[in-house]
Amino acid sequence: MSSRTSMIVFGNWRLRHAEPSPEAARRLRVQRVPTRWGARAAQADCRGAHALVAHCVDATWQPVSGTVAAATGHNVDPDWVPLAHVELDGGLMHIRHLVDRADRHVAHFIAPPVPVQPFAPPLLYEQLWQAFQANHLQTNNYECHYAVHAEPRELHLTLDTTAVPDVLALGDAWLDALDADAGSPFVAQIGDELQHGDHDNVLCRVLPHLEGRSGWANAALFSRKRRSTVLEPLAEFSAVLRRDAAAPWTQERHPDQVHGTAVEVDLAQHFDLPLRPVARWRHTRASTGCESLETGNLFSVAFSCAQAATPIFLCSIGYLRTRGDGSASLVAQEQAALRDKVLEFLRPLGLDARPAAEGLAHLYERIAEGSPRP
């Protein structure tokens, strides 16, 4: 992971989409911009005045002499959008990353899956055009560059505190901590930095039955899709189950399920399990997207408050997917490193965090223990 002033190429948006450009737009500007980058991705805030390195017009490379030459940069600009992160080494130009997404506050770049061989600087415009052409799907359709290399799972931490933390403020503070730690490979995932949810839930315990499965079923009363009518009742039905006390917990989630007024009945029919309602509770959650610039692994870090009879606080670190190649062992290694980083973040805030090996099952047990029987 590197955090230093790097060379960012700016130019017309048409080049990024490998479209023919008018003669007046066939020009580039190379500037030195503070950049955080790793093997798989890079991020830079291109706003402000940055030193000029060179102008490139067609096949002409024009270095800028002097130490005071600078130009104003932007993350989003139709004529001078950030296009690539490049380096000069031994007189040859290397394209390290191509722009993937630019937002108002930051630009995100990815290492081209189809690599570009080093070239002479005057060929920069032509080489960028060819690079975007070869990597068009990956740089313009984000879902084409994702893969899942491990079973998506979450590491859970329980937070013990006498004060009532604001989970949304915790999420904001976590993003600030990521931004401040320039030596860390973890950054906020652009476009998915912070999501906030607040919804009711109905928790049910699985009653003893012939199949022997035990655990919990929960109806989260919210929807991830547009409702056909304002009052259409939708919920996410989930279950945390195991065959016996020695077996591992397994989890199922089924979003956007239609339910009636007796949601616990619909929940029992959905999972074909005998259930007993144990608590109605409210879940407030701030979820942040987190990315490793070194590996392209994407994670979520979520701070939650489960409010039943007494509030219960939880943090979960979940693996989502990866930009490009990877492995399950690398995912596990980085997920554990991210958990340790979260623990370091929580400690100065006076939040005592402990691993919760049983995850949601542990949370549901605590909700049930602290809630009067309905």
Structural summary, described in words:
19% of the residues lie in helices and 44% in strands. The protein is of the alpha+beta class. The protein folds into two domains: 3-139, no CATH class; 154-370, Hypothetical Protein Pfu-838710-001, CATH 2.40.320. It is elongated, with a radius of gyration of 25 Å. The termini are far apart.
- Overall morphology: elongated
Rounded to the nearest angstrom, the radius of gyration is: 25 Å
SSE series: EHEEEEEEEEHHEEHEEEEEHEEEHEH
- Helix-residue proportion: 10-25%
Mean pLDDT: 89
CATH arch. level architecture of the largest domain = Beta Barrel
Indicate the proportion of strand residues.
Answer: 35-45%
Q: What is the overall number of helices?
A: 7
Q: Within the CATH hierarchy, at the fold level, what is the topology of the largest domain? A: Hypothetical Protein Pfu-838710-001
Output the CATH class name of the largest domain: Mainly Beta
* Main beta-sheet strand count, sense and barrel state: 11 strands, antiparallel
Extract low-pLDDT stretches: none
Strands, total number: 20
Distance N to C terminus: 53 Å
- Counting structural domains, the number is 2
Tell me the structural class: alpha+beta
